[in-house]
Specification:
Distance between the termini: 14 Å
Strand content: 25-35%
Oligomer: single chain
Helix content: 10-25%
Low-confidence stretches: 126-152
Order of helices and strands: HEEEEEEEEEH
C-alpha cells in the first residue's frame, strides 16, 4: 500500500510541476489622455492601449463623466488589436476633474475594467474650432488599477490533477479488489 501511495504522490507532483500558469489578462498600458493629465482643452478622442489584444464588451466601453456628474457623448468606439479608440464630444465640458471609466474584453472572454481621472483646466467653448484642440497630454506607462471580473471557470491544470487523482484512485481500487 505504501508503494501505491508513493506513486500517487509522485504523479501529483509531476502533474503540478508541468501545470501551465493561468494566462494573465490584458492590462491597460497607456492612455491618451493619461491618468492625472491636466489638459487645456477637452479631448476629442480617447485612446486606450493594452498589453494584449482586446475587443469591445457588451455595453459601454468608454464613459467620461464631468465634475458635475454629466456624461459626455461617446461615439465611434473601435477596438483594433491592442487599442480602443472612441470619439468624445467635450463641447459641454466643465473645468475640473473628469473620470474616465473603461471596459474591455480580453482574448479569453473575461471583462477587464478600470477608471482614472484627468483634469480639464478650461471649459469648452462652442465657438472654439475643433482643429485647434490638441492632445498634448503625455502618455503614461504607469499601471492603472484594473478590476477583472471573475469568469467563474476552473483552470485547466486543476482538471488534469483531478483526472490524475481519479485514475490513480481507480487503479488502486481495482488492484486492491483483485
Amino acid at each position: 500500500m505504501r508503494r501505491y501511495f508513493s506513486a500517487l504522490v509522485l504523479a501529483l507532483l509531476a502533474a503540478t510541476a508541468v501545470a501551465v500558469p493561468a494566462q494573465a489578462h490584458a492590462e491597460l498600458k497607456s492612455s491618451n489622455p493619461a491618468s492625472g493629465a491636466a489638459l487645456d482643452a477637452p479631448p476629442q478622442q480617447i485612446e486606450l492601449t493594452f498589453s494584449d489584444t482586446v475587443s469591445l464588451p457588451d455595453g459601454d466601453a468608454v464613459t467620461v463623466t464631468g465634475p458635475d456628474g454629466a456624461k459626455w457623448p461617446v461615439t465611434q468606439t473601435h477596438a483594433v488589436d491592442r487599442t480602443i479608440t472612441a470619439k468624445v464630444d467635450g463641447a459641454a465640458a466643465k473645468a475640473g476633474a473628469h473620470t474616465l471609466e473603461w471596459r474591455a474584453q480580453a482574448d479569453d472572454g473575461d471583462i477587464i475594467s478600470g477608471k482614472f481621472t484627468f483634469t480639464v483646466n478650461v471649459a469648452a467653448s462652442s465657438a472654439a474650432p475643433t482643429s485647434s484642440v490638441t492632445m498634448s497630454a503625455p502618455v503614461s506607462n504607469t499601471p492603472v488599477s484594473t478590476t477583472p471580473s471573475d469568469s467563474g471557470g476552473v483552470p485547466a491544470w486543476l482538471w488534469v490533477v483531478v483526472g490524475l487523482i481519479a485514475v490513480v484512485g481507480a487503479i488502486l481500487l481495482v488492484r486492491r479488489k483483485a
